Amino acid sequence: MNLDCSKNQIIIGKPLIYYEVLDSTNLKAQELAEKGAQEGTIVQADRQSAGKGRLGRKWESPPGSGLWFTIILRPKIDPEYGAQATLLSAVVLVEVLEKITGIKATIKWPNDILVGRKKICGILSEMHFNEEAINYMIIGIGLNVNMDQKDFTETLEDIATSVYLESGKKFAGNTLLEAFRVSLEKWYEIWVTEGFKKIRVQWLASSGTIGRVVKVKDNDREIFSGVTEGIDDYGCLLVRNEAGILQSFDFGEISIRY
Question: Which residues on adjacent β-strands are paired with residue 155?
Fold first, then answer.
């Protein structure tokens, strides 16, 4: 892994650019990154009119009820390790939720944060690179904070939750954002100077995926099934099927058999 081991000087969230309404914080962050925005920039919106999750799915992000933001990063690592940023972000989110709200969340590979079987947060990472280096990465976070049951659509009410529903308490989004900023700065420093090892250990400790029977899907089509055994040094999910064949996946999504 190609690392720049000099002291990381970025400050996550400096600057923080806030909008009342955006179509998507990821789209705005990409626009700013293309124009040379400095590493650590956070784009936050109170509401997104066209928020997206993975595979282009719509992400509900009503005003005043959640934390919707995107970070711009420019890590000096080989592009082949870029997918680790999503797992790094998941570790940070689990840490923040427990520290600030007391909620014990788990990670569903590759980009969901769950409480029990319900999704409380999603991560959408995008990387722009050439063969030799990463130009920039944007990491979008959508965290349901103060959403009540009535705030979820009929299709989401059985599969989504919020900090309020799980803790019974209302939280200021900026309190959670500040805790995320501090935690990400710590873990990002570890990543760019020491590599993925410590993050991998923490991810495995927080995972709700490992040891589960799963179906791996690509565009909603099942391509493999088996028991998850871990993640490799790239952040790929390792799944062994009934025939004993071990496969690694750096794409797709999974459904877990409970």
Answer: none
Structural domains present in the chain? 16-206 (3.30.930.10), 213-257 (2.30.30.100)
Residue 116 neighbours by CB distance under 10 Å: 13
Q: Which residues pair with 48 in a beta bridge?
A: 22
Tens of pLDDT, residues 60-114? 567 788 999 999 999 999 999 999 999 999 999 999 999 999 999 999 999 999 9
Q: Please give the Cα distance from 59 to 245 (Å, whole number).
A: 35
For the entire predicted model, the pTM comes to 0.92
Q: What are 60's two structure tokens?
A: 């509900």
Measure the CA–CA gap between 138 and 40, rounded to whole angstroms: 10
- Please state, in angstroms and as integers, the Cα–Cα distance from residue 32 to each residue in 9, 36, 146, following that order: 20, 6, 29
CA angle, corner 121, sides to 165 and 83, nearest 5? Answer: 165
160 DSSP assignment: B
